[in-house]
From TrEMBL:
Transmembrane segments: none annotated. Residues 278-361 form the Anticodon-binding domain. This is Anticodon-binding domain-containing protein. GO terms for biological process: mitochondrial DNA replication. Pfam families: HGTP_anticodon (PF03129). GO terms for cellular component: mitochondrion. SUPFAM superfamilies: Class II aaRS ABD-related, Class II aaRS and biotin synthetases.
Length: 368
């Protein structure tokens, strides 16, 4: 059974996503509650890398125009604002993480597994760098490395990501791709282009003048470097990348191993089957601890199944949801306050007092 055939039923059962097929084409991905959280975390990390932590000023915008390809016209107003904020001086950049786009080609894409990576409708993640002309080539090389590092940082298998050779078209535009290796072959997950001033070629002279920017006392057209992926591609990459069947006792267990920054839920609770009174006390304790974690900004799943199902069954549900940590409560927790913090990676439990749980988990998920 192929990787996607194993993953898609789990994705539907555990509310990640399912592909919606219209006229034999995957029209879009329909996300469930877990998938929405995963996408939100992917978008947040993309924005942190491409906007928040950049040296230059990066401004967000949304291309709400029907003509998806006409980026330079949709950037006109944001560009004027950026020039004002930056005193008309290069460099500065733009990031778009909200535009809902549609594939421009209408050719039949079939319903093969890999087409989940490229549905007809998608949310694009696109970055435009408006560079000083003399520095654009160097930035193009730098940006390739940075984008590959970003994908590898969140991957359970960093070695699957690679850059293609740089291709130059007849107009002098340079293009490279980041690809991920899966069992069916390589999947293109991001495209990076050194556009130079080609974006401005079709503009009227008066419109071109609007994009002139200063470098010292000179006025020049900025050189543009852009990179583009989509939320759907990123979601599918990290689902396929995180899926693993790991040895467990004398059997194997199926898990989604997400990076803790991307995991939809960071922690949940589990407890063995106990009598009704003890089980209820542990449920109340899990609710109290879970609310404290939520108030501290830790995405927490408080499950009603705690102490109602076998411990192994609770672990299986947590592994399918890709939850990095499980706080395992038991009867003695009610007496001495000690619980076991189980890791999805090792299945080992670290003993910790309930009073320190929130601060310790915050520390664990804070670091990359």
């Amino acid at each position: 059974m192929s990787l996607l055939n194993r993953i898609l039923p789990m994705c539907k059962a555990y509310a990640y996503m399912e592909p919606i097929i219209i006229n034999s084409t995957i029209d879009h991905l329909k996300y469930g509650a877990t998938g929405e959280l995963l996408c939100q975390n992917i978008r947040n990390e993309w924005l942190y890398s491409n906007v928040t932590s950049r040296d230059e000023s990066v401004f967000q915008f949304c291309n709400a125009q029907e003509k998806y390809n006409n980026d330079i016209l949709s950037l006109k107003d944001p560009f004027m604002n950026a020039k004002q904020f930056c005193n008309n001086q290069l460099p500065f950049s733009f990031a778009d993480s909200r535009s809902i786009c549609e594939q421009s080609d209408s050719k039949d894409s079939g319903i093969e597994d890999r087409k989940c990576f490229s549905p007809k409708k998608f949310s694009r993640l696109k970055y435009f760098a408006f560079c000083i002309p003399e520095e654009s080539q160097q930035f193009f090389y730098h940006w390739q490395r940075q984008r590959k590092i970003w994908w590898r940082k969140f991957s359970a298998n960093p070695g699957r990501f690679s850059l293609t050779e740089i291709l130059t078209d007849d107009n002098g535009q340079e293009t490279t791709e980041i690809r991920a290796e899966f069992e069916w072959g390589q999947e293109t997950i991001e495209t990076i282009r050194n556009v130079n001033t080609k974006m401005f070629d079709n503009l009227e002279p008066a419109e071109q003048e609007m994009f002139l920017s200063k470098i010292g006392k000179r006025k020049v057209l900025p050189h543009v470097v852009e990179s583009e992926t989509s939320l759907e591609k990123a979601c599918m990459v990290f689902l396929c990348d995180g899926y693993a069947e790991l040895p467990y006792h004398n059997d194997r267990r199926t898990v989604f191993r997400f990076h803790r920054k991307l995991a939809p839920y960071k922690i949940t609770f589990a407890a063995p089957l106990l009598n009704a009174k003890k089980a209820d006390e542990l449920r109340q304790l899990s609710i109290y601890l879970g609310l404290n974690l939520k108030k501290s900004g830790v995405s927490t799943l408080i499950s009603p199944n705690i102490a109602k199902k076998s411990l192994e069954s609770q672990f299986t549900d947590s592994d399918y949801l890709g939850i990095p940590y499980i706080a395992v409560l038991n009867e003695s927790t009610l007496e001495d306050g000690i619980l076991g913090l189980r890791s999805i990676e090792t299945t080992l439990e670290e003993k910790i007092h309930v009073a320190k749980l929130t601060s310790y988990v915050e520390l664990l998920i804070k670091n990359y």
